[in-house]
Amino acid sequence: MSEMMLATLSNIRTVDDMVAAFRDEEHCRRLLESMVWPNGRICPACGYKRSIAIAGRDTGKRRARPGLYQCSSGDCRFQFTVTTHTPLHATKLPLRVWLKAMWLLLQSDKGLSSVRLAETLGVSQPTAWRIGHAMRLMVARENILDGTVEIDHFYLGGRPRKHPDDPSLGRGRKGQVKTQKTRVVAIVQRPADVTPGSAAGDARAAVVTGLSLRAAVGAIAPQVELQAHLMSDEAKAFMAIGESFAAHETVNHSSREYVRDTVHVNSVEGFNARVRRTIAGVFHHISPELADLYFHEIGFRWSQRVVTGQAMRKKPKWQGKYENPLVAGASRTAVIASVPRSTGRQMRRSPDGGITIKSAVAAFG
Ligand SMILES: [Zn+2]
């Protein structure tokens, strides 16, 4: 296999391709390097673009291993490998396990449970669980949404449990006060370009505590540019937050209005449905503390879809194979190039031999 063939994971289409590409650690390291540094090595400490390979050189304690580089900046001289300052930092797992996990993640349309991942990779379930979470951190997007942005909220979790002391939960909003359900705000950027083959646009979701104005602002403000054109229903919190944005249009769901020309929240409602189905079908139950990690993965999958049609097709809902007729299908090309750029999140070996992930996400401390 030539160097060009190693360019991205998306070139690997079959299991035979995968066996060839991941045949030893050396190949895996070079493949990962081509994905992390598509335009040449960059020092993860200072961003300097020149560095030298120091394999075989005496570094004091031992001989430098292949894949160890040293920053050429006089002030820095940082020694690094392809995994330094990524979620794979200081991993003791072979790189081929990581690459297989990434490949499986890209191959699956709806995600993989840690149990399935463990069986497939031949690792323990707790290890697979941590691999899955590292992958979710890697696919987290940090760009701010712009253009036409739809926002909506929904609930995750089952029906409220009946409690003998408190039998009447009531219906509608009255019942929601006492439910154990998790409130989620979802944000979807509509594709600016609807010619077939363009990217579908990004989607985000975040757990919020209550749908107070403050909680909604906290979830939406850091994710959306102020010049964005916001679309939502007429929920009170959304009405208030909309005033901060360049434009805000609403559909009045309570009077059964769902689409008014280009004003609708169909994309974000499709994303909501995707989130609910994925959580129910793959992950069964997730804790609210970890939900944001799963949202990264689901949002990543969503953003990998491409526009396949020109206009909204009129189609009964039950015939629609996809949530939004404008965007369908999952494109797995050019996926990985954006993946391992999440510096600042680190995966480390724990004292008891497991893997711990140091990250900004509170779940990992
Ligand atoms: Zn440096």
Structure write-up:
The chain has a domain at 148-341. It is 30% helix and 16% strand. The chain has 10 helices and 14 strands. It has a 5-stranded mixed β-sheet with strand order 6-5-4-7-8, with helices on both faces. A 3-stranded antiparallel β-sheet has the order 1-2-3, with no helix packed on it. Helix 5 (125-138) crosses helix 10 (288-303) and helix 9 packs across helix 10. The chain binds zinc ion (ZN). Zinc ion binds next to loops.
Helix content: 25-40%
Distance between the termini: 42 Å
Q: Whole-number average pLDDT? A: 73
Low-confidence stretches: 1-7, 309-349, 357-365
Q: What does the largest sheet look like?
A: 5 strands, mixed
- Assembly type of the chains comes to single chain
Bound molecules: zinc ion
Order of helices and strands: HHEEEHHHEHEEHEHEEEHHEEEE
- Strand elements, count: 14
- Give the overall form: elongated
Biggest sheet strand order reads 6-5-4-7-8
Radius of gyration based on Cα positions: 23 Å
The secondary structure category is: alpha+beta
**Strand proportion:** 15-25%
Number of helices: 10
